[in-house]
Amino acid sequence: MYSRLTAAVLILWAFAPNSWALDPLEERAALVLRKATEFYTSNVASHGGYVYHYALDLDRRWGEGEATKNQVWVQPPGTPTVGLAFIRAYEATGEQLYLDAATDAAMALVYGQLKSGGWTNVIDFDPKGQRLSQYLRGGGKGKNNSSLDDGQTQSAILCLIRVDAAHKFRHKAIHDAARLSLDALLKAQFPNGGFPQVWTGPVKSRPIVKASFPDYDWRTEGRIKNYWDMYTLNDNVTGYVAETLIAAYEIYGDQKYDQALRRLGDFLILAQLPEPQPGWAQQYNESMHPIWARRFEPPGVSGDETQEVLQTLMVIAHATGENKYLEPIPSAVRWLKRSMLPDGKIARYYELETNRPLYMKRRGDVYELTYDDSNLPSHYSWKTSSRLLKLREMYQRATAGQSPLSTRTRRQLTKQSEQIISNLDPSGRWVSRFDGTRIVGQLKLPVGTPYLSSGVFSENITTLADFIALGND
To answer: Is the four-CA dihedral 390, 396, 401, 407 of positive or negative sign?
Structure first.
């Protein structure tokens, strides 16, 4: 329900948009929030879901590659990301519009839930589509691979359980899908607390051992075809899982989610490699040795994954109150500091035991290991920015018993909201322009090409909702 002031502002806005400058910022934020949501749900949504990017005329759309109008993406910043933004807007305003939009997104996820309980990166609503999988309720054919890669299943679960809570657990389809997906996630957890990248059913029991360096020639031996069945840290798998388990425990209050979180933290302690490289690898085999993944992903100590694990450990320590999850951090930070490249960045891979930065060169479809970073393939991030300053700040908060995750101040939210409001075009769109850099989905367009981004939309909706919520505190 609108307040009288909001209704008056709506009338003024309809006839004299320039009068915005006279209105309180919170009222303007509420108007923009509604206008942008109405545009996106009425014009952009397909089957209640979303992909990453859209041409302005909405005739073309992209996820990981070009998508049809019957395909929606699960992998962030797709359907769950947008759905979570709508739920945040509902929490801030209480308006049914946002709950309805979030429910539509959740129902798209319900349709695309796999028989194995999770999700893959795309849902195809066309019964004859090219991206079909084995949907639990919607039929379909193809693979049944529930994936944790890039937060696919985790983001879907987060969206479902938050929408479930908003409905007070009374929306049966969403509630059933949410609980089923959480049960499947727990069944995919190994005895040591780790997770695979992909699962089709409960995982097999394996011995619990500490990570170590392999005693064989890793360059030529120890390759595993189905590396996705092994313990995985790649692309922040464990960080996304930790966030999901924490939210599940907060929403449902079931101890099994807290216990699973603690086992995950225990796994991360086990997975830390010994000196002189006390960091973490992307993938591990049953013996907890670093292993190859794709042809251009060698076993090595990973600078990027190590930084992600440090943040995850701090989050788990705060959620559980267990300081043991902070103990691996100092030695890993020291390793990162001494491994920093001359340009201040951190290599994605460091050779096992020698700690030399390790790269790949490409000739056609053939990749070769190299120490030379002068001509790297452009499709992969071989170096990453150092986040040591941020990690140090997080660690200081964590050791003081505070949440390591910082929140935006009122001043920051006010400034960001003002910019977001000014950037909305008359149609209710935030238009991005391609600047030539690689964006999610590896979309390549001429520099300056305008497009719509679900990532930008979700960030802006969330920021406006956070700002509006300040007035309710």
So the answer is: negative
- Other CB atoms within a 10 A radius of the CB of residue 193 amount to 22
H or E element that contains 53: strand 53-55
Q: Is 217 exposed, middle or buried (0-12, 13-18, 19+ CB in 10 A)?
A: exposed
In angstroms, rounded to a whole number, what is the distance separating the alpha carbons of residues 13 and 275?
Answer: 64
Longest dimension (CA), the chain: 75
The span from the first CA to the last CA of the chain, in angstroms, equals 19
Please provide the DSSP assignment of 350-391 as one string. B-TTT--B-EEEEETTEEEEES--SS--TTS--EE---HHHH
d(CA 72, CA 256): 32
Q: In the structure encoding, which two tokens stand for residue 53, read together?
A: 């990017």
Number of C-beta neighbours around residue 276 at 10 A: 11
Return the structure tokens found at 339.
């491994």
Distances (CA, A) of 7 to 27, 30, 264, 428: 10, 11, 50, 18
List the beta strands (DSSP E) in 167-297: 198-199, 231-232, 283-284
What residue type is assigned to position 466 of the chain? D
Helix (H, G, I), strand (E, B) or coil at 190: coil
Is the sign of the CA dihedral 14, 93, 168, 238 positive or negative? Answer: positive
pLDDT digits (tens, 9 = 90+) for 53-86: 999 999 999 998 899 999 999 999 999 999 999 9
- Tracing tokens 């559980």 back to the chain, one arrives at 320
Kindly state the percentage of the chain with pLDDT values over 90.
87
Q: Are 92 and 66 in contact (CB under 8 A)?
A: no
Its sign, for the CA torsion 417, 421, 424, 429, is positive
Give every CB contact of residue 195 below 8 A, 6+ residues apart in sequence. 148, 188, 189, 231, 232, 237, 238, 241, 264
Query: Residue 394: which residues within 8 A CB-CB, separation 6 or more?
Result: 311, 314, 404, 405, 406
For 423-443, the pLDDT digits (tens) are 999 999 999 999 887 666 666
- What is the C-alpha to C-alpha distance for residues 296 and 280, in angstroms, rounded to an integer? 18
